[in-house]
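User: Good morning. I'm curious how norvaline would be positioned relative to this chain. Could you predict the structure with it bound?
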Amino acid sequence: MSVLSLKGRDLLSLADLSQTELEAVIDLASSMKSGSVEFRSRKTLGLLFSKASTRTRVSFSVAMYQLGGQVIDLNANVTQIQRGEPVKDTARVLDRYLDVLAIRTYAQSELEDFATYAEIPVINALTDLEHPCQVLADLQTVKENFNGFEGLTLAYFGDGNNMVHSLLIGCALVGMNIHVATPEDFQPDPAVVRQAKEIAGDRSSILITNDANAAATDVHVLYTDVWASMGQEDSATSRVPVFQPYQINDELVKRADPEAIVLHCLPAHRDEEITDSAMEGKHSRIWDQAENRLHAQKALLASVLGAE
Ligand code: CP
Ligand code: NVA
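Assistant: Good morning! Here's the predicted structure, ligand included:
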């Protein structure tokens, strides 16, 4: 199996991958998970994170160790960035030390600036606009459960945030239908919806609605995320009543296909966007999904580093 096609490439948006490339990363992730394929890369990954993280930080770190490389944790608070060193200076210096850089920050434009000034691969480890690494693992989890994507529909409930933006693009790339149910004032960015529709063409459909029950009917994947993302904590309390109709609970799960799976990127606020029983119930694949962050990112790192 070749992983060289992404060598040197950035992943700033999931749309940076073609359908073939995305599916190759997912398949490589599954092969690495089963142990049928192993790659080595004695390289150095920098993790430059300006927001909290459990899964992304740990799964990237373990992935790099398992590849035989090392990780430098560059929490933005302990670098000169917090004292005002410009991105274009930091990026050119880190480029001279590191082999790959994963960045978690607020503005997509800051990530793009890093990618402009650093020649090494730059990976989006979450911005306000997108979370592509999460969707690599999500799609791997869908494929593990349904053996493919054809004829499947994913329904997302809640805030029109970074998570649903990457899901819109990911579903369009692999040809899955997607329903997005949000409150009226919290719809996804229309520019991302347009982009996803262009990618999907006539292979799959995109439905944006305010009707959670209609969105859930007969779907194969039910997905949610927090109602207030990192940086939106001030509005968390006022959002609760607005988002309540979009909670994933046992009644909503019953509307879906009997074999439907429930996903959540985590961290979850139990009994807000998802009930405890939906998280712990028989439809939940949330822990497999979290595990797949490790395999999907290991496959991505091997691919952009050109591991052997
Ligand atoms: N899902 C996810 O990215 O989790 P963390 O914020 O813990 O990294
Ligand atoms: N939408 C969430 C995702 C966390 C993984 C956030 O940005 O906080």
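The chain has a mean pLDDT of 96. The pocket of norvaline (ligand 2) is lined by residues 126, 131, 161-163, 225-226, 229-230, 265 (CB under 6 Å).
Let me know if you'd like a different ligand tried.
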